[in-house]
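Q: For a teaching session next week I want to show students how multiple molecules come together into a single three-dimensional assembly. I've collected the sequence lines for a complex. Could you give me the predicted structure tokens for the whole thing so I can convert them for display?
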Amino acid sequence: MKVAYWPGCVSRGFTPELHGSMAKVAPLLDIELVELDRASCCGAGVLAEHNQELADALNARTFALAQKVDGADLMMNICSTCQGAQNECQERLDANTEYREHVNEVLSPEGLRYEKGITNKHFLWLMVEEIGLEEITRRVKRPLTDLRVGPFYGCYIVRPTDRMGIDDEHPRDTYLAQLIEALGGTVADYAGTHKCCGFPIITMNKEASLKQAGRHIGDALDADADCLVTPCPLCHLNLDLQQPLAERYAGRDLGLPILHLPQLVGLALGLSPKELGFDKHVVKPSSVIDWSTSVVAATS
Amino acid sequence: VTPKAALMPHKVPDVKAIQRIFDHVEQKPTRYELNLYIVQPEDDASDTEGKRFSGEDSSGAAGPENASAASTPPERSPNA
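A: Of course. Below is the structure for the complete assembly, covering every listed component.
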């Protein structure tokens, strides 16, 4: 499957291990990534608050670039925040011909044009809906047996449900749990699975933001999670990069590894923690690495 | 995309094109906006509470692949 791949700017700046692990995992799932390297930041919803037309124009440009990728089945991204922000822009662009034409006029000097109805899926959705969980399970080389993984969806990929295409037929707000099980792992259920990580308010209210992050991590630890997995690099920033500070605000020891989605998939597909960039995390995923080593030792 | 390239710092090659869009949209005196959710003055909102919209441009857009357009209000003028 060939996809127009939008990694987002956080994965190319703050969390290169996400972008890097996606590049390693893609061929193992027969996904050909054609990176949209000319695309700009999605605006993360913040830009739209300042100037909606600007956010819509920049995202329409990204969609137009994706639509120009020869033979691509769809556009794929690996950032929940991008997914949420882009779906919002697409909703406006697809709803109104006059508005879309107006935005397209801004793109025309570059020879670009957005045609209504692009299919833009997060990697998580693509795995479940395009590849299928049975196929994913078939490709697992190192089942995540005895690894207790807490899903952390974050908010942008689960709300609002209409915009995210969540319904009875496509329960996208359960895909992470389904995927963990398909990879052979055990889902650690805790209160924060679908809550906000606190990142969007960190510049306004650091204490509330990090208390939020600390509470979720603490809840996951209480549920005996070995690690969390998130489809959002911004959540990763608050849960991993800020975890030492969150520990202070939470008033308890934390130290829970936070994995990016492609890292967890890559682990099950047989890649090593080093290949997946585990050494770049602030909270070193020692428990996961120890687990991985013991599984390799047991099978060799 | 190669794993090595993915770890290299990224720089948008045609940043001027993005700057042009920014300048064009930001410098306009009037914002051109489309609000999908507020379709009439608040005083009249109770009249249509619970009504679903189904505009010409949102037809056939159901399904997760077009999730973002699945429940959009009818065609209407921006800035209305």
